């Protein structure tokens, strides 16, 4: 069974809520999921997971520095995360406020680790986005993304 | 008086409506403005303008090919648009659907021409975004952007 | 056996050369490969492939409009390319001249189609890049990328 | 006289060397320049500058977390940096290794503060890039960028 780490930085609680919605969806699909605040994740533990789903509030159009700090430290594992899966989500204050660039920023770091990512032809293409407190639209996107991640994981990790 | 070209590709009419809102705001601020569909713009005419405000629907997270076609052809003017101003806007079907990447895609082409661009600390930071038919939020952003472009133009082009 | 379409726009021949190097590598790994200039690809034929590897020269930091034109037209297939694989490459005149943004631009369109993409922890992380005529460094990256695409394809398409 | 802050994070010394080359060029053009390691910059001091030139090594395709930390903290000044100038540079291990995305990442944060940025039609379009230890190519780009920043500053801040 594939093992997923859903991690996030959250001050307002919005990004955390999205993390929980995605985790619930991944669990529902039968994955083994840990949901951990990014500041509590040990960099060495990353090798234990098959799938990384990282979320950040949209801070100046890029991920919060706390998320980047873990990713910078992950350089000690460089090459060992090759072939794993990555996905990202973000909560923002405004439409057009940098939520897409925040998600793509996280996805770029995953690509540089050699990870596999997937888009979505419906809804939030790059990853789930919430504008303010997650509403039904955002929740639906989190749930849907969880299902899609699980479907791909079943093909990749058996 | 600075001369601005507001140009757009639009099939549904949403991007065109945004072009008109931005143009009205630029005119209000005293700029000399042409609003022309991108397919009617002659590449040679670009040297006559000080300011370019280009809009595109969000098609697969990047500008419509019709917009890119004109920009590809503008290579014959390479170096002659250095120091002019650029700005961009986009209309999309969904939140998180690629509107930011479309705007940044256009802004990147302007940067490579050596142009000057500016963000906005309020609202749509990279450029005005509409989700579907421009609503009051989108109209406000178009109007505000027009004012900001005019304010910078007054400093740069006298 | 997975079927790949390697397609490109090329005026100088540099991007075409990269397409040939990637294709040779994919064939070597046992994939069924078509290499076709982007202007000759029929949009309807896209459903027949499992893997898309698209290349473009770096024109103003984004893909050439000829590449975008096909991708814009592919909207008629929207949803039908979900779960397929995508990869991208670019040739540029200069380091720091927009080659990464060109590749990411193509990858974004693939993500919006719901495709699966993968990075590389070594060399050209987002996709192979050539500065001018492909040298040994660029050729090595094309060959390596072909192997990696084939390895993932074997997991996804059986 | 416009006042510039050139700041950087550097472990290998490569990004620091670029910072010094850009600073020398800005000073030569008559600007008042401070060159300070990013970890020593007080966030409150940012309001004192007209121009920000920030550099980072390319770490996973985005800025080092130490650079992002200062930018995250700058939210307390949000709105007060509107209309100032921004520019960015990066040193990377490889071509195609994320240097452009690192620079654009920094530029996006500046845009969200409402800053003014400019590209360059020659050389490194988005900002100076070094592959490894800055060579003559990279030094030339740093010097050229300094001149261009100074030329724009003279128009904007008098």
Question: Topology, pairings included?
Answer:
Four copies of one chain form a homotetramer.
Chain A: E1 3-8, H1 14-28, E2 32-37, E3 51-57, H2 65-73, E4 85-92, H3 99-112, E5 116-118, E6 129-131, H4 136-156
Parallel strand pairs in A: 1-2, 1-3, 3-4, 4-6
Helix pairs in contact in A: 1-4
- Total number of β-strand segments of chain A? 6
Distance between the termini of chain A: 7 Å
In the CATH classification, which architecture of chain A applies?
Answer: 3-Layer(aba) Sandwich
Could you tell me which chain pair has the largest interface and how many residues each side has? Answer: A-C, 25 and 25 residues
CATH superfamily assignment of chain A? Flavodoxin domain
CATH topology of chain A: Rossmann fold
How would you describe what is shown here?
The structure is a homotetramer of 158-residue chains. Chain A has helices spanning 14-28, 65-73, 99-112, 136-156, and strands at residues 3-8, 32-37, 51-57, 85-92, 116-118, 129-131. Chain A is α/β, with parallel strands linked by helices. The first copy, chain A, has a single domain (3-156), classed as Flavodoxin domain (Rossmann fold, 3-Layer(aba) Sandwich), CATH 3.40.50. Chain A has a five-stranded parallel β-sheet, with helices on both faces. In chain A, helix 1 packs across helix 4. Chain A starts with a strand and ends with a helix. Chains C and D meet through helix 3 of C and helix 3 of D. Strand 5 (116-118) of chain B pairs antiparallel with strand 5 of chain D.
